[in-house]
Design goal:
296 residues, Alpha-lytic protease prodomain-like, 68% helix, transmembrane, ferrous iron transmembrane transporter activity
Length: 296
Amino acid sequence: MITTVRYAVGSVIVGIIVFLLKYVAYAVTGSAALYSDALESIINIVAAGAAVVALRVSAMPADENHPYGHHKAEYFSAVLEGVLIVIAALAIFREAAQTFFELHTLNAPLRGLLLNAAATVINAVWAGVLVRQGRRVKSPALVADGRHLYADVVTSVGVFAGVVLVGLTGWLWLDPTIAILVAINILWSGWQLVRESVGGLMDEAVSENELNRIRTAIFHHSEGAYQAHDLRTRHAGRRTFIDFHLVVPGNMSVDEAHVICDRLEAAIEDEVADSTVTIHVEPEDKAKVSNVYLPQ
């Protein structure tokens, strides 16, 4: 968790550097498109700060009021980032609308483009680091931050191309038009983040691929039991909760059943990192014919 927080703090630092570069690019050119790009960087800084707080909260151990831990705190960070993205998009729409009525020639476009390009390269590299590390440690906050930066990179490339066109063609209306297109792309990115984060808050099950791995682990490590059934899963931040019913012979001792459960828990935890497994042991008269995963 300490490493995860460090990456989030790194996002704040990178966000500040990128914002300064993009704002100077806007200041020297007066471009509405470059202004929209700089404004999104402010959202990156705020969102990264929120991720730092969320990651610290999610690392807190379980307590009396939160017996399952604080893992879902990361989803609130991702939702907040989505909301901030929407606010940024609305601000860009406003600036673009004003620019349409006050069209002006861009100043020093080459210098502004070089500054913006440098900021874009920094964002692209850091976005790759965040998504890769976020997936490795199963951190929704880091993955959301990385994906947001990827969206920022895409819009920055579009802005770069658009401002070049403005300089080559003299079509000043292209500048606010590009800003509007950037805002639309930002809105879509925000919607995607909010939708995925709400899914996590609503206890979405694991992916089909992960579910099949869990079923396989149960199948190959439940020797001595009759069957397993009613498998359920849910995500809570990096933590995955898994529970199912295990049917054993009615005359099996508690110690013997416990050995099977320990073997199953170890096998599943090897397949699914950061998982919590709960097994409900039942006698053979509780066997079912549906939702069943038979042992060897």
